[in-house]
Amino acid sequence: MTDPQGAPERNEATPLTVILLAAAALAWTAAMLWSARATITGRADAEMEVTSTAYALPGAVTADLVAGAAVALLALTLIGRLRALGPTVRFAVATGAGLLTGLVSAIPMVTINTSGTIYAVLGGTVAAAATIGGAVAGFRIPQVVAATGAAALAVFLIGFVLNLFQSPILTAFGAGDTESSVNAAQWFSYSQAALSGLAAGLLAYAIVRRARFRNTDGADLRWPMYALAGAGPGLLVMIGEVLTRTAGSQILELAGKVSELEQSVQQTLSTSRLNNAMIVLFVGAITTIIAVGRTLSSPDDEDEDGLAEDATTASSTAPESSTASESGAAPESSAAPADDDSPADGTSPDAVAGSASSGPLAAPSSPVSAADASAEADASADTSASAPADISDSSDTSETSGVEPTPAGKRA
Questions:
Q1: For residues 144 and 26, what is the distance between their CA atoms, to the nearest angstrom?
Q2: Are 289 and 226 in contact (CB under 8 A)?
Q3: Which of 231, 330, 360, 393 has the highest CB neighbour count under 10 A?
């Protein structure tokens, strides 16, 4: 029996998909870290550096989550093509790959200012995020991990593009005075989250569905796995927000001490990020479930398909059964004339007489009258009749047919 730990991976993501995902995730993470470093180092005073670090922290953490998962998935795919990996080894390789990605990502953050602790906290938070992402890739659902990573990158890209056109969009939402601007900003945030969730759900469904058609055994995942892939980007953003509030809490506290307004802004942004993550999660999951449901056949369609298959099978077997019945009946029809012609072929009169007296009806070739045939039938049906009566009936029958009667002793 094959060991499940040593068995080859089923439903593994294709190397091309994983390579493209890892390249895109690393490029996005590098861009986020470079932007954060440039923003932080470009401030003139320490207070602005702290607030800029707090603003850059959530984006860097979420990007490193995706990068850690993508690099770990790439390592598992390449090693899995050489040898099978058990659960323990798989988790160790994935976590190690995520940790290595996190350490590389932490270098540009820590080296901003090695004398302070704030950048060490920033680098540690980024490294922790990449390590967690690598550990997530250790689960035996590579298609779901790949689809989640690609959908998360789509969410990041949509947010980036919409922020480039933020001013005209806010104007379209009716931004004017202070109150209307706040309402417009809220509608902008909700619309961005809904659109991101829709794109995440569709992209995740497409990737998982494509992986299903590429499987050698044609196996497909159940619909909860599709829903998990669609909800994955929202889950990553929520995990990133949790890391920001826990591992990066010191940075947020320092930013809140700059002023009461800054503290209020940080709290508002944190709540907004969490709400957006929940919208992306639910919209992505619902979109994927609807997409999967459209591919499922109804019970009526399955019954019709089954009836069609039965009809096809019956029509294909009908000629064979009819041919077999004709071939089996042919010998009987050919043998019938031989029996009818047997008296004319020189058969002994004794055999003909014996056959005539043994049954209720005479042979078809003997010219027996209707009265004699009925009398003979009555005699054979009556079980209380005596032997002489049978002999006389047979004698009459034999006389009528022109055949010499056979003595009773000889018959016995």
A1: 19
A2: yes
A3: 231
